[in-house]
Specification:
Elements (H helix, E strand, L loop, with lengths): L1 E6 L3 H12 L4 E4 L16 E5 H9 L3 H7 L24 E2 L2 E2 L21 E5 H14 L3 E3 L4 E6 L4 E5 L2 E10 L6 H6 L3 E4 L4 E9 L8 E5 L2 E5 L5 E6 L13 H12 L5 E11 L2 E4 L3 E2 L2 E3 L5 E2 L7 H20 L9 H25 L5 H12 L2 H11 L30 H4 L5 E5 L7 H4 L6 E5 L10 E4 L5 E5 L5 H12 L5
Parallel strand pairs: 1-2, 1-10, 2-7, 10-19, 21-22
Antiparallel strand pairs: 3-6, 4-5, 8-9, 9-10, 11-17, 12-15, 12-16, 13-14, 14-15, 17-20, 18-19, 21-23, 23-24
Helix pairs in contact: 1-4, 1-7, 7-8
């Protein structure tokens, strides 16, 4: 019997598998597709944006450089010492309803404390590129990946879960469904799934144009919808506000795609060939809870929405980072009471906010007499410093804050990349997947107190190049600040925080 069975071998399932295996769990991944690679996962249809938060997560596990290389990002832009040169401005990766951000207008001083980090501000990747890196990592850590194994049955009791996939049975102490928007695990287990029905059918395709000059590059909003041309050869996307009637089960023919594109663009553009095409909708749904007994959900299995703004993959990576260490601690019996339940209480509001962010963009783009006025208003607000900063804060993935019951501004936020005087960074210390206690106090006030959690919390003490006025910081394995003190750390307060997140100390 495995500790964990994961249904779904996409980036979310593979990242989660690596997190669990890093903590010592035995993991099997069941993937319905027979191969890791496919035309729909490669560029251009598999194109996805990794935001700054996801880039930081990969950096903290030592995966940033490999992912960037697989994604075709120039090596000199990855992993450099940001203190050796001027830090790059945030990339114009984010947009709201097709309106891109002006990176120069972001007021970083109004955002929670950040420190320079080797992590990039985000970059474009593909499902294939990211999946290959995460698959290699998971395999190296001992994860068993079984392909051509769609899940067809799930049964659980108080001790384990039995999963039927590809005609075989697999037993685990826990099951996590990472098997996409049409999750078999979610449906077979009976999770509640509610939200809003679609307003549009979206299309993404790689085509050959007879007359490409008829369609300008970038986002183009028209009275009949929206179309997007990117610099990638033949890559086009569309939003047709038909109520989502063109279901994914229908074949996207050249004739259909051309007719929709002509109607939306208001041109007589001709498609001579459609090489690849896929459709989707803006249906926005979320599981009412992320856990049912010994079954949990992550990624698109837990929430679906339109791809506007590129939040889906990043939301799923955040789910996996939050869940992995909590589930591993539960498996090994070191988790304090209720730790696993904090996965839903922390991640469900984040997912709900992303769904609302997606809905707001759709409302701003919907053809009709009202949306243009709304769009004009939002465009003006986004030209202000406050408006640009707000959108960046929402889309970068760096400024979510979990309510952990503390008024200290950093608690619940992703930790700054603190750097000791001798050069070691927090991001490097997090590569082991353990908690980290950073003690900046001259007398190493927490050294003895931290010994009770040896093996679960790494203790690191030294003067920091910039300690932000803090004496000590406790960071969870997912990089979230669990506790922070002033210049004089209190031993009792540290121990209380450590017990809350890492369980009973060793005697």
């Amino acid at each position: 019997m495995h500790d964990i069975v994961i249904a779904g071998g996409g980036p979310v399932g593979l990242f989660l598998a690596g997190e669990l295996a890093l903590s010592g769990c035995s993991v099997v991944v069941l993937e319905r597709d027979p191969e890791l690679t496919s035309p729909l996962k490669a560029f251009p249809l598999g194109l996805r944006g990794l935001n700054a938060g996801s880039a930081e997560t990969l950096y903290r596990r030592g995966l940033l450089e490999a992912t960037a290389k697989a994604s075709g990002v120039a090596p000199e832009k990855v992993g450099a010492d940001p203190e050796a040169a001027q830090a790059p401005a945030p990339r114009e990766l984010s947009h709201f309803a097709g309106m891109t951000l002006d990176a120069a207008a972001i007021d970083t001083s109004s955002l929670p404390s950040r420190l320079l980090s080797p992590a990039m501000e985000g970059f474009m990747t593909s499902l294939e590129a990211l999946g290959s890196v995460l698959s290699e990592r998971a395999t190296a850590l001992g994860v068993e990946i079984i392909r051509n194994a769609p899940v067809t049955a799930v049964a659980q009791d108080t001790e384990s879960v039995l999963v039927t996939a590809g005609g075989q049975e697999y037993q685990g102490r826990w099951l996590v469904g990472c098997d996409g928007g049409r999750s078999a695990v979610r449906q077979l287990t009976g999770f509640g799934f509610s939200g809003t029905e679609p307003l549009f059918t979206g299309y993404v395709a790689k085509v050959t144009f007879a007359d490409p000059a008829r369609l300008p590059f970038g986002f183009n909003l028209t009275p009949n919808g929206m179309y997007l041309r990117t610099p990638l050869e033949g890559h086009v996307g569309m939003m047709d506000f038909d109520g989502g009637t063109f279901d994914r089960s229908q074949t996207v023919t050249r004739e259909h795609l051309q007719a929709v594109l002509r109607r939306i663009s208001g041109t007589d553009v001709t498609l001579t060939e459609v090489h690849l095409a896929s459709s989707f909708t803006d249906r926005a749904m979320q599981a009412t809870a992320y856990r049912a007994g010994r079954v949990l959900l992550a990624g698109d299995a837990a929430h679906i929405h339109s791809p506007l703004g590129g939040q889906g993959l990043n939301l799923g990576i955040g789910d996996a980072a939050n869940l992995g260490w909590k589930l591993a601690a539960t498996v090994f019996g070191s988790a304090p009471e209720g730790l696993l339940d904090t996965y839903t209480t922390e991640r469900h509001p984040v997912g709900a906010a992303v769904l609302d962010w997606s809905r707001a963009q759709v409302a701003t783009m919907k053809p009709g007499p009202n949306a243009p006025a709304l769009r004009q208003l939002i465009h003006k607000l986004m030209r202000t410093t406050d408006g640009t900063t707000h959108v960046y804060g929402k889309t970068s993935g760096l400024f979510n804050r979990y309510d952990l019951g503390s008024e200290q501004l950093l608690v619940g936020c992703t930790a700054p990349d603190f750097r000791f005087e001798e050069g070691t960074r927090l991001g490097e210390l997090l590569r082991q997947g353990k908690g980290v206690a950073l003690d900046f106090s001259p007398g190493r006030a927490l050294q003895d107190a931290a010994k009770g959690w040896a093996g679960r919390i790494l203790y690191a003490a030294d003067a920091a190049r910039n300690d932000l006025g803090l004496g000590a910081v406790l960071v969870r394995p997912d990089g979230v600040v669990a506790w922070a003190s002033g210049p004089a750390p209190e031993r009792d307060a540290f121990q209380q925080a450590a017990a809350q997140w890492f369980g009973t100390p060793q005697s």
